[in-house]
């Protein structure tokens, strides 16, 4: 079936179900579990994030939120966590920050919605969390202060302070946060030749400090019973200071070399976002969402040759400047025929720009100085219509159709100074157009069992950085880019069966899925090396298992276990070998386990998260490799000193994060060149620990 026929069928289904909506006025449109503040405030949470960790089914959505890629614009899907029936309008000012900045005492109740509902500002993927806040809030201050460290890095402080207040339809919040993230890891390399003789060894140690200072503000104003305004502002300043010391040995020549790759990176972000809603009447509602943001970055890298007695000389330098802008405007009109039926339509317009200047200058040996200046602009718009209807008391349908059109312009100026000066200019422009249908059916077998079917066409957004050369630190070169890269399109089919028991404290969801992929983005041969490109056809299919379990039945009170497991496979015609194989970097299975113990002893609780993915293979122009990773373990312990104060001890990579690869290197293109050597690399991350005192008054 062609993509246009599929789109027409989805739209036809929407229209057919619309015709039958008049008979459904008294039918429920969603399976909803409601948690009032009396349920979670007894455990003295401080933030909305704390509240959601106390609700069994919400933990799986928090895990999905952490693993969701950020797209440009709003789109028709969005986060599955809503506040007052609406999505968060910001991008850098994200839903995760909103969860940590919203106080638990300001929450009226939380809804877990399995299905669709006409007043929601998002299309359901199965479970939607809708947080309803109190209309009136009291003045309050929430603060945190702590320290963080790794094995051999000094402890550095971090913290935040947030002020909330409101009256007479006006609520506002202002806050400051310093976030600190130290990273310390070691890489060991070993190479062997055809005779299994070791020819090379290296140890590389990176010590990295990442800091972010941010100031944010939020304003909500109820101008009238029909008009509501929300405005968010954010300013952030990032900084990375890093040293990457490499000590290598050429075993054959018995020679040694020491280098130090020094990073000095800074970036400033600002963002203004918000929404305006206007209720024409009870059945018609208008909404306008907007975002405007900008990033300015100054990224410097030097490689130093370390000589005897600690003296250094500069081998090369890599300065990089870029400015990125995004402006998005989305307007929609929602018509509600009755409480069980609505049509939502509108348009979204987005303009994205990236201007980047990257240089590579050798300061030892022959003269080599390259400069590449790239200017990219993407203009995109979407026209959408979606429809919600209850066919019966137990059957619910949501359908939509989106038309997306985008135009991409890339202009590049390149200059290379060696013994002579070489220059080139290149400009290209392309446009893309897609129809994206969606159909979701939910059927409640009874109060505990639910079936869901979902078909959706998704189209990836090209990362503008894909058109700018990236630095390969191992081989000290700039990667080749692909000006012909296209978005990846997937027709995604899934069926879910969900069962709940023991008053929704326990749940299991089984979801087989199948993805038909057009223009898969993967590694392909380019002119000189390899990089991101497209393969015409591919497929992926598998089975996802998600669930949460309360251990009350085992006599272990206040303990929730949330787990997910995915087993999957894929098929694509390998662009290097022209043989059918799995995707580049594709794992056949992965799992995650999260344990929340809310009352280990009085006032003491803990959370432990474990995750692992199976080994996977990957290839580039001149090598093939297999990667294996160990299980990661993160966790924290909370001690509730009193109602206002909480102490947290947190550890990341508790068993040390480790993975390794076995690589076969070739003289040229791996499928057409002789074998060169075996390579083995091991990564080892040091554990990271922090202690935080938080309070509110």
From TrEMBL:
Keywords in alphabetical order, please.
Answer: Cell outer membrane, Membrane, Receptor, Signal, TonB box, Transmembrane, Transmembrane beta strand, Transport
Specify whether Signal is a keyword of the entry. yes
Gene Ontology biological-process annotations: siderophore transmembrane transport
- Would the keyword Phosphoprotein turn up in this protein's UniProt record? no
Q: Could you tell me which SUPFAM superfamilies the record lists for this protein?
A: Porins
Q: Which GO terms describe its molecular function?
A: siderophore uptake transmembrane transporter activity
Q: Name one GO cellular component term.
A: cell outer membrane
Q: Which domain of life is it from?
A: Bacteria
Q: What is its main location?
A: membrane
Query: What subcellular compartments does it reside in?
Result: Cell outer membrane
Membrane topology type: Multi-pass membrane protein
Give the residue range of the signal peptide. 1-24
Q: Where is the TonB-dependent receptor-like beta-barrel domain?
A: 163-652
The entry sums up its family as follows: Belongs to the TonB-dependent receptor family. Hemoglobin/haptoglobin binding protein subfamily.
What name goes with this protein?
Answer: TonB-dependent receptor
The organism of origin for this protein: Agaribacter marinus
